[in-house]
Predict the 3D structure of the following.
Amino acid sequence: MTPRQANVVVMPSGPIPAHWAAASPFAGMDVCRAAGWEVVPGGSRPNFDEDFWDLTGLRHIPKSARSNTQRLDFRGITDPAFRLTAKEYIFALAVPHHELVLALPDAIRTVYKPTSCFNYCVQLVRWLNYLTAQGVSDLSEVMQEHCDVYRVMRLERKRTTRGTGPISSGTMMTILQPVRNLAHYRELFSKAAYRPGFVPWPGLPLTNVAGWKYQHGNSEPAVAEEVFQPTVAAALYLTETLGPLVADEFDRLLQAVETRSSSTLRSLSPEISATFSRVVASYVHRGQPLPELDGRLLTKRIGNGANPDDPLVRLHVSRLINERTNYTSFPYRLVESVRPMLEDAAAKVGIAGAHARDATVIPRYDDQTPVPWTVPLTGQQLRDLAFVVLAACRILVASISGMRASELDELTPLSPQQPVTVSGDTQRFRLTSKLIKGHQLGGVQAEWVVLEPAYRAVQLAARLNRAAEEDRVFPMSPTDFLHGRLRDWVNGTDGQRLGLAPIPAGPVNGRMLRRTLALTLAYRPGGLLAAKIHLKHVSVVTTEGYAHKPGGSQGALLASVEKAQEHHHLELTESAYRDYQDGKMPAGPGARDLIKAFEHIDDALKDHQSGPAAVLDSDRRLEMLLKQQAKSLHVQAANYCWFRDPSRALCLKLAGTPNATKPLAGMCDSARCPQATHHPCHLPVWRDTAASNTVFLDNPRFPKAEKARLRPELKRAQQIVNEIIAANTELGEE
């Protein structure tokens, strides 16, 4: 027997001794009152001396918080002394303004919310019980070796609930933070504490210990274009076209369930048999299929011994008996007495779902061919479809509003505000919610200006979810799970029957959707958000939301957009400069000025005296020079606009607004504007324009007046194509 096997670890347990609890500086204190957490009338108010803190009575818990995060359970810590230390540490995180906590030089000054306290409570239970299992009876015995082994043990443990793969560095930060921070609160603990001077991983930032790597800028990736486009297109189709029809049918289902009594048929009397026969005969007379049983009930029926090959095993007999009687349940054992009649009827009309049998015709997504919006559905299939539409609603709102997950969770049926009519007889649609991230418990009220599809999606979600005034409109499911449900439906028989483009596999979550929107707006007009959504409209409502609530969530999104746009414009300017260096010159009226600007950059680089790190210094110098040029770049659909001098801008002259600070994209005439340039990347657009105009002009049925209008357009497009090719040696050779 090895020494390790011979050691017997005694696991202490039981309540904290009364004299230990009384010696704590927080003994007898009301946790909620000390932390400033408001409690609803009659709600639980945990005392520090309790080993279980029930916070379910808090008034302003965010809707995104899981119910288990409102219960801080210290009873899992087996050592009573360690348990008291854990409670003192969590109390100090929730009440950092306590005079004893303020006296600690390294104590955390941030007020921790109940959710964060719960996360660290869970990690404390694991860390302290690990020490007990290692035979540590006092925290003063803890050594660096214990911390290192625990870190490796937790790092090697795989996730078993959501997702796969090793624990991330962010999660490791949460795991290791209480391990180290117990040292910073040593003087506060009344019974068990690390020895004086001991700090786990001394001299190392905890980020290094956890493997965290800082990245400049926003490191969140965008959703892949091949995934994003069909996702948003499908979400739009489901919420705008299919959703209202699903909601109507779902309302009828729920109304039938609410009015249905509960009674089980025990035996078939002659009167009941005659009534049942008339019901079945009415189906045969109308040529309607008999109602089909839900999948889960079918599984249960087969599990109870029914033959899967029985022609009546899928028949919803209870629905038949309930049509003209008060009975809602028809035991399957009674089917034998009416089997010949049912088998004959099923052979004549078949068996199908009872819902949406007379489905309204809608246009397919791809070719607008009219098709019924659904095939007949069972009750469970209708519920599943309603959930898919709910998923589409949330994904659509997240994709075109930029709202964070916590802000989406705060949306209620009262969130859609009355539309406001603005100049031009257009309407602005607003949603009220709460800002949760970075704010006190409960968040602060905020308002978003959104596109009409997002506005209607929230209203549809509230209807499908049967949400009351203060209830959340979206299901409490993560975005990646909801996207998976949407993708499975779109790629299945139902989505393909409606002509939706299949959605490839790929990661999608709320943060990625927000980042995708920011990049799409920043890269406009090069990126297409989705069918039927105009980027200009998204940009306008985002800007209006920012102006309405400066510093709010839309303000943060707009700041991210502007930062990404600045980076994108620098990349485009650098690409144009590299083309210039390779002999690929720009074309267009503004080409001469742009070439002069690039020549000036060349001269500045030659005159600049580089230091020892010549290459790095030169690259930084070039970046600074290109940034100045990139500040004037405005990306148009088929040209670059170098808007440096408003007095020379053709669009401003045509509009009569010479003092404007930005060009007017809708009035851009890049063939004549002295600040517009064309580059090789614009060649496909102009070639397609010329080809399309040629087709129309060659069509004898095309109106003469339109031909007269198109001839100058074709001439201009062909001229620009020739200029781009002539300015580029390689393209000219082709």
Remarks:
- The two ends are 82 Å apart (CA to CA).
- Confidence is low (pLDDT under 50) at residues 1-8, 612-616.
- The longest strand covers residues 426-435.
